[in-house]
What does this fold into?
Amino acid sequence: MPNENQINKKISDSVNPDYYIKKGKLNNADEYADGIKKGDRSTLSRAITLIESTKNEYRELGQAILEKCYGLAGHSIRIGITGVPGVGKSTFIEKFGMHLIEQGKKVAVLAIDPSSSITKGSILGDKTRMETLAVHENAYVRPTPAAGILGGVAGKTREAILLCEASGFDIIIVETVGVGQSETSVKSMVDFFLLLMLAGAGDELQGIKRGIMETADMIVINKADGENIHNANRARLEYQQALSLFPPQPSEWKAPVKTASSLDNTGIREVWDVLKQYHNQVTQNGFFANNRKNQSVQWLHEAIGFQLKHQFYSRPNVKNNLDRLEKEILSGKISPPFAASELMNPSVQE
Amino acid sequence: MPNENQINKKISDSVNPDYYIKKGKLNNADEYADGIKKGDRSTLSRAITLIESTKNEYRELGQAILEKCYGLAGHSIRIGITGVPGVGKSTFIEKFGMHLIEQGKKVAVLAIDPSSSITKGSILGDKTRMETLAVHENAYVRPTPAAGILGGVAGKTREAILLCEASGFDIIIVETVGVGQSETSVKSMVDFFLLLMLAGAGDELQGIKRGIMETADMIVINKADGENIHNANRARLEYQQALSLFPPQPSEWKAPVKTASSLDNTGIREVWDVLKQYHNQVTQNGFFANNRKNQSVQWLHEAIGFQLKHQFYSRPNVKNNLDRLEKEILSGKISPPFAASELMNPSVQE
It folds into this structure.
């Protein structure tokens, strides 16, 4: 049996563009795009890795692939699913994903895990947790370690969504841990935002970031099985009451609260029923198309901001001066906008 | 009696740096800084106007004034107050501000109103609404129209806070309408965030942005008077219950829900009591200082982002190409990151 290092090496190779480019297997964007359009999952994986890479030549190749696939993308329902560690996201997504496949859907799962990286075995771990789904021919499970493979960066989930869509997946699930900034940005790239919670506002809930609960399109009280059913039902009523106090969503959708159990396989079908209702309503009232449009424009301006900042913070002198200026701000010597102006000054930058 | 145009002209002159610079009254940053440190409110007003200006020479003068005042700033409690139009913010702030003055405090109110501009009489209106507070020698009321005076921009509230502090004000209230982006950013510049609400989740509440309620340090059900007292008390209990379902704040503070009436002058003193408790707790657990420090660093990076974008979007060719590229994105021709890269290309920029 191979040891963990050998397994990780193998997984790393399977998504490593260097490995394939050197072997002469895939050299240009057209070959990648063709493979993606044919539904080849390992080509899809490698293309996502290229886009996530910090190496310019890889990123440019990834970008070229994206452009060739862009016109084919967009024909899916994008679902964000968040919740604290321990809420049972992976098991829920496995059951939910399998239910969708039974309905004839092709399901892609993009998991954003800020705490993982490939060397820590996270990709292995996630694949193992969704073992039925991960190996199904109509599914694709892709963890996106925030620290990244090959020094890649997070924040390429939108690109990954588009590539999955071009590859024929019609349900895209973006899984994220509800403890950081990620779930706010996930809301800006999905059509439907589902929050998984547990009954009993104990320690397990401490991780969820404030301001998230109000933005959910649905809350599911998970692990509603065994002795927990009573508590889960009480929590459902309490959260439903709390949500009713919130102002309406721009979609005019009233977020329902339901219970579910991956153990008993209950409540899973109901989530899909709710999602279909939602999709009906927001397609009819125009919110779906309008929201997608706004998200695209928002993405453009985020990409501009990201690229401007990336260029700026890459300059060595900016990095060095930043430390000094931060200290001067905190000691009350100079104000933040003055420090910013000083960094903008070409003589400081070069 | 002067007509509205004459009144607006007079108010506009009183904050117009052109008017004063031409008259030779205030020419350099030292003069402004001296006036501010002495507590002269019209000098303070003009300095804030300089900072808000889009004219480079004014902004640079404003920046120079800020640097001279920066070391003196920081010694206040900064309170954000938000709520939808009609919730009674101005009247509440007037009563609350007068109570603080009775406690020996000097109170500055910075009102951010995205819908107003000086020509629509908003400054006049706001001053009229807080008529007792606005004319008190220990208070300063400053509306910041988003559209701006002299083509000024919003987003200079942090600078205005610092100038007010340098001028000796020890309570700074930032008032904002809870309908846009502004209340999220206000949270990032204050020590304590108070949300005013009304009993009965009717039409009046529709304006509040989702995700705001969870971030409040205190909710006050306003207009708890007359026949409304019963409803206000019921709303208080409901919101208190809803807040208890939320995860804890980073400050470890449990946000209380109270009722108040500006008409009966009830609940006003209690807000100050809660604020003192909060200040005690977060000073002791270190959150206060830590939060201020994080806010300063965040401000630096926001200022960098703002200045980078300002430079970028000011280029005429970026403006022109932006429209075309947005259309191409929405028609599915190119992806947002590709459009961003194209705009970054120097040949497109020049």
About this structure: Chain B touches chain A through 62 residues (CB under 8 Å).
